[in-house]
Amino acid sequence: MQYRPEGCIIDTEENKRLTATPEGLTEAIKKGIILEARALMCTNSHDLIVDLPCAKGIIRRIDGAEGIKEGSTRDIALISRVNKIVCFKVKQLYLSENNELTAELSRKAAQEECAAEYISSLAAGDIIEARVTHHEKFGSFVDIGCGLPSLLPIDTMSVSRIVHPSDRFKTGQLIKVIVNANVNGRIYLTHKELLGTWSENAALFSPGETVPGIVRSVEEYGIFIELTPNLAGLAEPREGIVPGDSVSVYIKTIIPDKMKIKLIIVDVCDCSPQTPLKYFINSAHIDRWEYSTSLSEKNIYSDFR
Questions:
Q1: Cα(55)–Cα(229) distance, rounded to whole angstroms?
Q2: d(CA 195, CA 201)
Q3: Domains of the chain
Q4: Residues 149-169: tens digit of each pLDDT
Q5: In whole angstroms, how far apart are CA 255 and each of 233, 290, 293?
Q6: CB neighbourhood size of 123 (10 A)
């Protein structure tokens, strides 16, 4: 698929071939191919200078992003691309006054094509790629294609609750997301459904095992510890434990009908407090997801139909 988050095609053989020579850039013009390269700097007029092997690449401010001309996108969207990979379509090649081969590029043209040919066709339940660009307290902004942004709210990231999106994702991380809705081209996203049901996650563990976990909340009656992003257990209260601690825990019991796991904290560990993502869904679309077990009185689900 050609409409991917920025940074996904820069190392492909086609991208390397087409950006290496004037002939390759000319071919890209004729065929309308979207390419990628690294933005080296942003000038005082907010033009992006792009690293091309065979020419000086320039993305003029007005071509830097969809919405710049209208004012709906701020110039920070251009400044923040410095030293990062940008996508673009080649508009023209010419010799400058000092006889330097110059390539006029348009990131906006790539984004407009992506929006028309790809984003507009997305439907609820579609599973797509996204790259995390930056975090806010309420969620992570992600690139869903050619630098076009969407928001992944913090409460959709996992079943296990987190304090900040950086507890779940790293900036620049390539992840999968599910389209929750497409309202006139504005894409709403979710993520937790990809991380498995209670039963799928609980099947990874057995009573009697000692495993790593992350403390997510400390209550008077116990300590909630994340074993996976979609599975948490409860340990008895213990002094000196705070949210974010990495711990080792002994699994006492697993109770499917109540969707509960009872734990005992063995030790506090000096290691990175982040659990890896494991995706349980490999298809390109999902209609319905049921987190709850068949024995549970709770009914936790997502319906994309």
A1: 46
A2: 8
A3: 13-116 (2.40.50.140), 198-269 (2.40.50.140)
A4: 999 999 999 999 999 999 999
A5: 10, 18, 10
A6: 10
